[in-house]
Amino acid sequence: MEQAGPFERLRGLDNQALTLRLFENINSFHAVPRLRQKLAKIAFAEFESQVPHAMERDVAYLLSGLNLMLGLALSTRDHPGLARELGEFLRRCDSNGLSIHHFLTRSAKDWADIRPKYQESSRAELGRELTKCFPALEVETADLCAGYLLAKALARLVPPFSFHDESHSRSVMALRAQPDLSWNLCAGPADALATVETHFPEIAWRKGCRSRSLSLVGVRLLSQFSPKTASVLKQALGQLDHISTSLVQNRRRTLHTAFFSEMDASLFKFNLHHHATLAGTLCDLFALDLETFRSGYPGLSGFVEEEMRQETNR
Q1: Which of 154, 184, 204 is the last residue of a domain?
Q2: Nearest 5 degrees, angle CA 282-CA 288-CA 292?
Q3: What DSSP state is assigned to residue 286?
Q4: DSSP states along 226-283
Q5: Contact between residue 238 and residue 271 where contact means Cβ atoms under 8 Å apart
Q6: Does an H or E element contain 85, and which?
Q7: CA distances (Å), 282 to each of 254, 274, 278, 299, in order?
Q8: Distance between CA 122 and CA 132 in Å, rounded?
Q9: CB-side exposure of 107: number of CA atoms within 13 Å?
Q10: Is 32 among the domain residues?
């Protein structure tokens, strides 16, 4: 749409920043029942010819998000090119593997179902976005990380909505640390850390993206997880330089920890035995590999997330 149209009042921000705000608005409509009830009442037939493969709900959420940003109700009568514009954007979202319904339901289009043209362009663009967030990251490493994250459904790109006529608009990175977590839109490096540190702990993302060695230690919790158990783990980790993930599987709770020196790993084992004995908590150390570490949730959140899911499913 031309800048002199309904989006003229949104001057001052580029399409990437405005697309980020658009999806935040869409998420607010989905997350709050009171707002969800106010979704735009759309005669979908007006759009169907332009968006033959889109879900009606996608159009409703998209238009509602735009209306919230503009403070007015967009209509095809006042803006004849609106249906075409919405249809083009939704097609681009689907081509990149993250339509609005995917974004809202923690899902994604299978990587194998995305045409090679979009697979290659997504990998190249995601790699560029990673190097913009982490300037010290080598281009080849960024490309490898991008390919891994895309194939594992941990990353997708949200194409920019054409609020303004820009010669080149950057997409918005959508990342998540695990496939069943919600999508996190990245406005800056901090938004990407949970994902990249979980899956690439061998890269010092916070300190110049240099390579580092890992000493992996796994802990199986044999006692019921409780505040006392959490305290034991935190005391054992102390001020040691580490990154942790955790996993709940078949009611078995495990903590996965990557240390960056063998000395810290040995000290953790000693501390854990000491504090667990004092607290009467049963723990069992086991051999850990990088693949298992990657399967966990960031920090201790895996335990909390699992408990919440179990309560929801009851």
Answers
A1: 204
A2: 105
A3: E
A4: -HHHHHHHHHHHTT--EEEEEEEETTEEEEEEEESSHHHHHHHHHHHHHHHHHHT--E
A5: yes
A6: helix 82-96
A7: 12, 11, 10, 20
A8: 15
A9: 8
A10: yes
Q: Within a 10 A sphere around the Cβ of 16, how many other Cβ atoms?
A: 20
30, 170: one domain: yes
Both tokens assigned to 88: 């083009």
From the centroid of its chain, how far is CA 273?
A: 35
The partner residues of 210 in beta bridges, in order of sequence, read 204
Question: Does residue 1 lie in a domain region?
Answer: no
| Tokens linked to 131 | 């190097």
What are the CA-CA distances from residue 70 to residues 26, 58, 84, 97, 309 (Å)?
A: 13, 18, 19, 27, 36
What are the average pLDDT values for consecutive 10-residue runs of the chain, which has 314 residues?
60 88 90 67 64 76 87 71 85 94 95 94 97 97 98 97 85 96 95 97 96 96 88 93 90 92 97 96 95 93 67 52
Residue 158 shares a structural domain with residue 228 = no
| 0.90 exceeded by pTM | no
